[in-house]
Amino acid sequence: MKGYVFHGPGQSAWEEVPDPSVQEPGDAIVRVDAVTICGTDLHILKGDVPEVRPGTVLGHEAVGEIVETGADVRTVRPGDRVLVSCITACGRCRYCREGMYGQCRGGGGWILGHRVDGTQAEYVRVPFADLSVYPLPGAVANEDAVLLADIFPTGYEVGVLNGRVRPGDTVVVVGAGPVGLAAIATARLFAPERIVAVDLAASRLQAAKEFGADAVADASEDPEQLIEDLTGGLGADVVIEAVGVPQTFELCARVVRPGGHLANVGVHGAPATLHLEDLWIKNVTITTGLVDTHSTPTLLRMASAGRLPTRRLVTHTFPLDHMQEAYDVFGNASETGALKVVLGVPQHEVVAVQPTV
Q1: pTM for the predicted model, two decimal places
Q2: Where in the sequence is the domain holding 121, given as residue range(s)?
Q3: In a domain, 356, yes or no
Q4: Which residues contact 105 (CB under 8 A, 6 or more apart)?
Q5: pLDDT digits (tens, 9 = 90+) for 126-170
Q6: Helix (H/G/I), strand (E/B), else coil: 172
Q7: What does the record list as coiled-coil region(s) (predicted)?
């Protein structure tokens, strides 16, 4: 089969790789029907995630069909259409028993495309399949479902839930990429007074408006003043960092109000300064986190009912074997306008970014 292989910083290729096989009784082999590219994959290619060894097939999000299972798998069987979660859960360790699957110590956590071969291939081996794949209802199309593998659970859990968004809050989302847009869409479920999106790209700010942001700010044009004006000088109740660079984290720390919450979602590849000389007196709660995907069943039900704007995030689609082209488009989002790219559909289609909630 073929897969997209990481060979070191700046080096990758769509090439022949060994077919996956069942190695443990809890494994499942999934034929990949739809897969997407994550910003984390770009961080890997830049060398920001040194745990990823050269020779690893990238990717941690997919939709596909079970073709083989190990002897201990009970919840799915060959022929089932499933969502492959970005997080693998052993189900037995302390963290899994507490629903913190991202911190699994029994051989799971974020392993696909990280510590073992991932989903950007024709087939993928999924360990601990009973807790790591989700049967899909027929009402949820591949292009919708694949966005529930990582993007929506991450924006919802690490951003909205960790940030404790409440009715009447002012919520600021810094970074209107896919995760930031998912955070905007799911923050609306909690009836905040206003949502403010901050980004450098005009196309993403427009998308943020269409996903539910009440105000937008160009990051280069003093967003702090806008937030101060909107809140009467108090600052934001909740600030969600969805970029992963020092400047955006430090901006978030400046605009959160005393007693507010700063939820960091972005993947950071460089140190960011924590200005405790300013923050120590402000009663600010700062959270970090890797998604646990405990919300995936809920989000699947919402998607099935048409309550999530999943498909509107997909701006480009490609055949599976156009992986390098898809990476080029996604990696140059400022020029291409890409939000999410999905591979595995039969044709290459570019659609306008016209999200609605």
Answers
A1: 0.93
A2: 2-150+293-350
A3: no
A4: 90, 93, 94, 95
A5: 999 999 999 999 989 999 999 999 999 999 999 999 999 999 999
A6: strand
A7: none
